[in-house]
From TrEMBL:
Chief location bin: membrane
Recorded superkingdom: Bacteria
Location of the protein in the cell: Cell membrane
This protein's name: DMT family transporter
Chain intervals with Low complexity compositional bias: 326-340
Recorded family membership: Belongs to the EamA transporter family.
Start and end residues of each stretch annotated as Disordered: 297-369
Listed SUPFAM superfamilies: Multidrug resistance efflux transporter EmrE
Keyword Membrane: yes
Amino acid sequence: MNHPPQTRSTARTTLQGVLLVSFAYCLVGASFTANSVLGDYPYAGGQAVRYALAFLLLLPLLGGRAALGPVRALTPRQWGRIALLAAVGMVGFNLAVLAAERTSEPAVPGVFVGCAPVIVAVLVPLMEGRRPTRPVLYGALLVAAGAFTVQGWGRTDTLGVVWSVAALLGEVGFAVLAAPVLRPLGPRLLTAVVCAVAAVESAVIGVAVDGDAWVRMPDQGEALALLWQAAVVTVIGFVAWYMGIQRIGAERATLFTGLIPVAAALTAPVVGTGTFGAAQAAGGVLVGAGAVLGSGMLRPGRRRPAETGSRPAGPGRRDPGRGPRRPAVSAPAAVQQPPGDESGVVAHRDGPAPGQPHRPRTGDGPPGP
């Protein structure tokens, strides 16, 4: 069966977005394993080094001075959103995870972060003035259940739960705050800008908390871990994540958060920090099922206009700077035969909409010889 070109294009875009977001989250999951190497390195200083190095690596990819135009055009409100994105979704998220793991087992913040798709599936539609999409919501619940199955529930206390909730809010903020500044900057430029801001924020926190010891020369293992975090997880992972959001939106992209614990469970045995068993395999199946259900991969031709961030204009709605929108005209309705005409072929300049009566206009009628 041949699908219309528009359906094939939508399916291709959805598949591209799914692959990009999946790749990004797998890199983030693998980075959790790399974090174990940085346990003795100053937290804030390590984040500052990571994001500063990522910014330097991105500079040659931005196109020189031409990239400064969109940055100069940013409004104070957009700069505030970028600063909040870096503080909440990057620096704050990592700080919350680290603080939670001081009094809790790593599974506890992981389970909370695994609930991010459920919150985003409800929050994003409400912010756009529409109802949550049922397939996305059901898929998010499956992903959360899969994340819990992969990680289980570990030992914790009240403070660990509080910091785990903060990590959850950081993950939600990272998804929700990015969309409005992604449009004017694009994936690469936005990644570079938020990395620069996050590096400054991390350095300020490091000096305030650790004083002169906020940064030090890393040893060989720490240097490799920081390089991995900067070059692979931040540069490649963040750009892939933002490119995926452009194609499928934050609401569906966050479904793939469940791949973080799956990737961490797969890579942990490599460095001897964990095992992969039946629970991890079952949780991975649940995460995959939820992501497929909610992402729209099974129904590429039924993409709703609301998922693209725009609403269809109704009969009484006006587009900015335009007059009333005319009803959509399908191809078959554009050519109709008026009553009483027996020529068999009629060419119309403007055909009626489906279900509307025909009203002949000047110039309509049978064609000449």
